Structure formats: C-alpha cells, structure tokens
Amino acid sequence: MQVLIVDGANVVGSRPDGWWRDRAGAAHRLHDQLSAADRPEDEIVLVLEGQARRGPHAGQEARLRTVHADGSGDDAILDEVRRQVAVGDGRGVVVVTADRQLRQRVEEAGADSRSPTWLLDQW
C-alpha cells in the first residue's frame, strides 16, 4: 500500500500562475490534476486549508480523498501521516510539501517527503 499526502497550499503556491487571485479555483485545478493523474499510489490525500477549502468538497472520490483542515494545514497533514503509519501494515507514506519544518516532522513520524517540483514534474 502506497499513500501520497499532498500539501495543497505548498503545491499550488509553488507556481506563480495567479493562484493568489482565486485560491478555491487553484485548489480545484490541483484536485482535478490529482484525480486524473496516472499515479502509482493506492491512495492520494489532498489537504486544503484556509480559502482553498471553498474549492473541492471534503470527501472520497475513487482513490483521491480531500481533507479540509480545521486549523493548521501542517497539523492536519501530520495527523494524517500518524493515522496512516498507525495502520501498521508497512504502507509507504510520502508527503509532498516545500515546508522544511513540516518535512522534518513527517519524517520523524515515519513518512518520506518530496518537494512540489517532484510531483509537478511528473505531469
């Protein structure tokens, strides 16, 4: 089992394409790209915070699950990492974020991390 957890704010913010004018629209575009991507992971979790939560609805669509962070997106990502690792079946968990502190925290919790560029270069 392979799980990819995407820090929506970091991935959207990694490209200067005007996302700041329409955070919900940018979140929808990322959601649609993840939904359509031919990815090897069994599950993809997109974590959205702030105004981006007005984009895609929270919930499961096939293998893509969208999570709306109640507070900090980083805390929601770390909670998701801990939940996935706690399953205890040896699943691989990878978090996509540019946030150095978050990368350190998720790695300490048992996940690997990659940069937004790593993900975007695969499309």
List the helices and strands and how they pair.
Layout: E1 2-7, H1 8-13, H2 23-36, E2 43-48, E3 59-61, E4 64-68, H3 73-86, E5 92-96, H4 100-108, E6 112-114, H5 116-120
Parallel strand pairs: 1-2, 1-5, 2-4, 5-6
Antiparallel strand pairs: 3-4
Written as H for each helix and E for each strand, in order along the chain, the element string is: EHHEEEHEHEH
CATH architectural type: 3-Layer(aba) Sandwich
Total individual domains: 1
* Structure annotation, total helices: 5
> Any idea of the CATH class?
Alpha Beta
Strand content: 15-25%
Euclidean distance between termini CA atoms: 22 Å
* Strand arrangement in the largest pleated sheet: 3-4-2-1-5-6
**Percent in helix:** 25-40%
What coarse outline follows from CA principal-axis ratios? globular
**Average predicted confidence as pLDDT:** 94
Q: Specify the structural class.
A: alpha/beta
The rounded Rg comes to: 13 Å
- Biggest sheet architecture: 6 strands, mixed
Task: Describe this protein's structure.
This protein is α/β, with parallel strands linked by helices and 123 residues long. It has one domain: Rossmann fold (3-Layer(aba) Sandwich). The protein is 39% helix and 23% strand. The chain contains five helices and six strands. It has a six-stranded mixed sheet with strand order 3-4-2-1-5-6, sandwiched between helices. It starts with a strand and ends with a helix.
Question: In a few lines, what is going on in this structure?
Answer:
With 123 residues, this protein is of the alpha/beta class. It has helices at residues 8-13, 23-36, 73-86, 100-108, 116-120; strands at 2-7, 43-48, 59-61, 64-68, 92-96, 112-114.
